[in-house]
Amino acid sequence: MTMPIPSDGAPTGAATPKVSTGTVTVWDPVIRLLHWTIAASFVVAWLSAEEVMPVHEAAGFVILVAVGVRSLWGLIGTPHARFAEFVPSPGGFLSYMGALVKGRAGRYMGHNPAGGAMIVALLVSLLLTVATGIVLDTGGGVLGEDAMEDIHGAAATVTLILVVLHVGGVILSSMLHRENLVRAMVTGRKRA
After folding, report:
1. Which of 61, 77, 121, 152 is spaced 20 to 30 A from 71 at the CA atom?
2. In what order do the strands lie in the sheet with 23-25?
3. Backbone phi and psi for residue 106, each to the nearest 5 degrees, phi listed first
4. Which residues contact 178 (CB under 8 A, 6 or more apart)?
5. How far apart are the first and last CA of the chain?
6. How far apart are CA 53 and CA 96, in angstroms?
7. Nearest to 49 by CA among 142, 164, 185, 160
């Protein structure tokens, strides 16, 4: 798991990112491309639902492929991309959330425990949404079309709620640690 950054600003953990001009490379190009591909595809899928089904289905397929690649990259990718680096234990998550509520959450080079938990929740929710969409497209399976449509819609709504919470968490963490996390997901670099 990624460790908090000590007060002297030096990163902790096994792998030390390359330092250049006061920033460190954290997010590799694969992570950044997958992040923005999934985000854009979800927006397209949400906006095209029940309106332009070929576009909706294509966006769902892109999400499926991107989540699959992200899952593989979580096993074999760069250090900050690996699930082993950022998926928190329940105790680690609760400890971080307690510190966050008190305004004392540590800064992390990679994902903090709340961000790590959110990634897992989003990947699971996205996969459930896509899977139910595929079953719906093939007639609704054993539950039938109406029930599957309800489940698909609920899964998409849960995903949207998670996206809103994710964006809120990014804004909160950016303000708390005085760094632009959105820019970091574009450039791949964070303050050392």
Report:
1. 152
2. 19-20, 23-25, 189-191
3. -70, 155
4. none
5. 18
6. 41
7. 160
pLDDT of residue 14: 41
104 phi, psi to nearest 5 deg: -120, 25
Distances (CA, A) of 126 to 24, 68, 75, 98: 30, 11, 18, 28
Q: Is the pLDDT of residue 115 over 50?
A: yes
Angle, helix 29-48 to helix 145-177, in steps of 10 degrees: 130
| 110: Cα within 13 Å, side-chain hemisphere | 26
Angstrom distances, CA of residue 170 to CA of 58, 61, 142, 144? 28, 27, 40, 39
Sign of CA dihedral 77, 78, 81, 83: positive
pLDDT in tens, 59-98: 999 999 999 999 999 999 999 999 999 999 999 999 999 9
Q: How would DSSP label each residue in 14-32?
A: SPPPPEETTEEE-S-HHHH
- In the prediction, which pLDDT does 63 show? 98
Place of tokens 């791949």: 188
Helices 145-177 and 113-137, axial angle in degrees (round to 10): 160
> From CA 68, how far away is CA 119, in angstroms rounded?
13
Q: How many residues does the chain have?
A: 192
